[in-house]
Design a protein that fits this description.
The chain is α+β, with helices and mostly antiparallel strands and 229 residues long. The chain has helices spanning 9-12, 16-58, 73-82, 89-95, 109-120, 171-186, 193-222, and strands at residues 63-70, 100-106, 126-132, 145-155, 158-170. Bound molecules: guanosine-5'-triphosphate and magnesium ion.
Length: 229
C-alpha cells in the first residue's frame, strides 16, 4: 500500500486482511528461525557423538573447536532484500542456506574431509552441496570445506527437513579467515591492494604450515618417528 503525505489516518489504516497477513508472516518467520535453531541442535549432537566416539575408540580427537549461530532476523531480512527475494518463508527457507551455520575447526586437513564423510554417511543427513575451497581456494586465499546439509527436525506435525551450512577448516585456515574477515570489515570490503597481497601470501604460508603439520603428524602416527628420542 502506498502511503502519501496527504492521506488521512483513516486512509492509511490497515485492512483486517492486511493485519492478518502481517500476523501470519510474523508467525511463519519466527517458526523459520526456530526450525533453524533446532537443526543446529541436531547437527551439534551428531558432531559431539562423532567426536566422543573417536576419542573413545581411536584415542583421537579430530575436532578442536565447534561454534554455531543462527542468523539474526535483521541480517536475514537484509539478505532477503539483497537477493531480491519475496517475503515468503517457503522461498527464504529454500534459497537462503546459511540461516543455520556451524563451524568445525580441525587440527589437520585430512580430518576436515573425514568429519564431513562421517556426517554425511548418516541416513538422515542429505548432502545438498559441497564447496571445496581447500582443493580450490578462493582468489584471496580463503580455504575451507563448505557443505550444505539437510537434516530433519522432529516437530509435533512430523519430521521437517531443515538446511544447515557447515564450514569445516583447520586451525590455520580459521586463523587466516578471522583476520581476513576483520580486515574486510574494517575497510568495508575495499581492502588496499598491499594488504590484499599480504593476506594472500599469509594464506599460502598457512597452507604450507598445514601441509607440514600433517606430514609430521602422520610420521608420528605411523611410528616412523621415535617419540621418546
Ligand atoms: P554468502 O556469501 O553467504 O552469500 O554465500 P555464498 O554462496 O557466496 O557462499 P560461500 O560458500 O562463498 O561463503 C559462505 C560463507 O563462507 C561466508 O558467509 C563466510 O562465512 C565464509 N567465507 C566465504 N568466503 C570468505 C572469505 O573470503 N573470507 C572469509 N573470512 N570468509 C569467507
Ligand atoms: Mg559469499
Amino acid at each position: 500500500m502506498e502511503i502519501r503525505k496527504e492521506m488521512t489516518p483513516a486512509e492509511t489504516a490497515l485492512t483486517p486482511q492486511q493485519i492478518e497477513s502481517i500476523r501470519q508472516l510474523r508467525l511463519d518467520f519466527s517458526q523459520l528461525i526456530m526450525h533453524h535453531r533446532f537443526v543446529i541442535d541436531e547437527v551439534l549432537t551428531k558432531i559431539s557423538i562423532l567426536r566422543e566416539e573417536s576419542v573413545h575408540t581411536r584415542s583421537y580427537n579430530p575436532i578442536e573447536h565447534i561454534s554455531s549461530r543462527v542468523k539474526s532476523p535483521r541480517s536475514l531480512l537484509e539478505k532477503v532484500h539483497r537477493r531480491g527475494l519475496p517475503l515468503d518463508t517457503e522461498i527464504i527457507r529454500r534459497e537462503i542456506t546459511d540461516i543455520a551455520g556451524i563451524r568445525i575447526t580441525c587440527s589437520f586437513i585430512a580430518d576436515t574431509y573425514h568429519v564431513l564423510e562421517l556426517l554425511t554417511a548418516q541416513n538422515d543427513v542429505r548432502l545438498v552441496e559441497v564447496k571445496d575451497y581447500i582443493a580450490e581456494p578462493k582468489p584471496n586465499g580463503y580455504r575451507s570445506l563448505h557443505a550444505i546439509l539437510e537434516v530433519p527436525v522432529f516437530m509435533r506435525s512430523g519430521p521437517t527437513p531443515v538446511i544447515c551450512e557447515v564450514q569445516i577448516r583447520t586451525i590455520a585456515m580459521d586463523f587466516w579467515a578471522s583476520l581476513e574477515h576483520k580486515i574486510h570489515y574494517k575497510f568495508d570490503g575495499d581492502v588496499p591492494d598491499r594488504l590484499v597481497g599480504e593476506l594472500t601470501e599469509a594464506a599460502d604460508a598457512a597452507s604450507e604450515l598445514d601441509r607440514k603439520m600433517e606430514r609430521l603428524h602422520s610420521e608420528v602416527r605411523e611410528g616412523s618417528v621415535d617419540v621418546d628420542s
